[in-house]
Amino acid sequence: MGSGKSTVGAKLAQRLDRPFVDTDKVVEEMLGMPVHEAFNSLGEAAFREAEQDALSDALRPDEPIVLATGGGTPCAEGAMEWMRRRSLVVALQPPIEVLLARLVQGQEHRPLIRNQRGKDLQRTVERMLLTRAACYGSAHITWRQNLNSTEAIDEALAGIQWRLDA
């Protein structure tokens, strides 16, 4: 959440000339409502089920794509293993200060942190990162740098190009 998956993913897709799929957008289309509304009105379990359906559909075709998932999507049972078998998995882990600054903006649309402020927000985010660390740690690659510029994205992409060409 807030790591830049949608923004960086769209830029990578453009650079690689591949389609971009954002599972949050797919879930919104499936359920006919924004993610935060689905989470609140249908509940987390139904939302997570829709996320897994979106992930499965996105990874099924053999066409290379750039995929951005929701923050919890890879942590569902079997999801990361499926993603690793079907694709090159890159985890985005910007510095905590960058993450927190992003999350404060648009916080009302993030059900897991909507009512958090200051140190409470930081503790909640740190706890979430810790809880998901094992899952995220099994990604093929982790980018910890702030990818807010074209140059930073190009540099990160250059580091994995050999894997994409294989």
Structure description:
The protein has 166 residues and is mostly helical. Helix content is 59%, strand content 7%. It is built from eight helices and four strands; from the N terminus they run αβαααβαβααβα. It has a two-stranded parallel sheet with strand order 1-2. A two-stranded parallel ribbon has the order 3-4. The radius of gyration is 16 Å and the shape is globular. The mean pLDDT is 92.
The fraction of residues in strands falls at 5-15%
For the sheet with most strands, the description reads: 2 strands, parallel
Strand tally is 4
Tell me the series of helices and strands, N- to C-terminal.
Answer: HEHHHEHEHHEH
Task: Return the domain count.
Answer: 1
CATH superfamily: P-loop containing nucleotide triphosphate hydrolases
Output the radius of gyration.
Answer: 16 Å
User: In angstroms, what separates the terminal alpha carbons?
Assistant: 30 Å
Instruction: Give the low-confidence spans.
Output: none
Report helical residue fraction.
55-70%
Tell me the number of helical segments per DSSP (H or I, 4 or more residues long).
8
Main sheet: strand order: 1-2
The CATH architecture term is: 3-Layer(aba) Sandwich
The gross shape turns out to be globular
User: Looking at CATH, which topology would you report?
Assistant: Rossmann fold
Q: Which structural class fits the helix and strand makeup?
A: mainly alpha
What is the highest CATH level, the class?
A: Alpha Beta
Average the pLDDT over all residues and give the rounded result.
92
